[in-house]
User: What shape does this take?
Amino acid sequence: MQNRSMKMLGVSAALVLGLTACAGGGAGSEGGDDTGGGDAAPEDMTVGVSMPTQTYERWLNDGAAVEDGLEELGYNADLQYADDDIPTQQQQIDQMITQDMDALIIASIDGSALTSQLDAADAAGIPVISYDRLLTNSENVDFYVTFDNFAVGQEQANALLYGLGILDEDFEPAEDAPEETLNVELFAGSLDDNNARFFWDGAMDVLEPYIEDETIAVPSGQTTIDQAATQRWEQETAQERMENLLTSTYRGEEELHGVLSPADPLSRGIINALRSDGLGDTIEDGLPIVTGQDAEIATVSLIAEGVQHSTIFKDTRLLAEQAVNAADTFLNGEEPEANDTESYDNGSAVIPSYLLPVEMILQENYEEILVDSEYYTEEQVESGQQ
Ligand code: BGC
Assistant: This one.
């Protein structure tokens, strides 16, 4: 893992150094002057922060970190959660615009559902930062802060192949790889979240050659993102689909060896279904290999116990910092620095983006990456609670 982390750090350093901002097409260049609060002091400015849901730990951490970061710089923050309900998020943002927020940081539920809010923000000269999930179908998005979402999918697939023994610990073809074809099932996220396609495409980029040469098979035949999607990223929906797959496909000869899951809450639903079906309590006693994303504390605990095989760590403290920096930069009349000006075409414009690197978490490295760095304490990992 050491080498691998070094490699990833190399990639991210190149991303950071390689490119500078090119703020084309955003609200900043089209409508009112979005670049700032002029001479106003941070204490006199408020940044609206719109988050999708409080149901998952990930967004609670994001909201708190963005709020803290803004307040540390002296800004006021208006943090709102939308209960995964699109009209609620629309209303909350409408209100932020009416209340003259100085900047907006938005993690959308449905990336395409906020175009009229984005038009209104542009007309009012309010810079908009798209947070983690891309706001789509609008030119009025000034900046995007996120992780390397394609790499998330690739790392999920690599982790799955490693867990299945097809790749070794250096992620090279394993010498003692199983000879028989191994069976996997595939899950994707919510189709209205642009990230879901990046995760899926990244994962399929790695898995497709192995499906083609029959190293792995998908016995249900459900191999398109539409078939694998999980509306609104709901844990219960993933659990139900896994139960249905077990009933429809794994009641005869077939044995299930692994599941590609795009996010930890879904993974926990999938694991519930696998355990209830008697497939084992831990990987050691037969539980299939399950991937994940977000390194949520409940999941890291399951990884430590040998239940879930892997997750992908995205340090949301760093994402919050990027979002706060971007807002601060706009409010100082400048443009934030992008490290990617190509990947995120939102259907109306290519949005200048800042991508952060990601890391694969396994039983053998969670202590080094998550505990030694003080992201979690060992007690939190043991209890599974923050
Ligand atoms: C985020 C993931 C998260 C998922 C479900 C995605 O947009 O990038 O980190 O697991 O939403 O909340």
Summary: The chain has 14 helices and twelve strands.
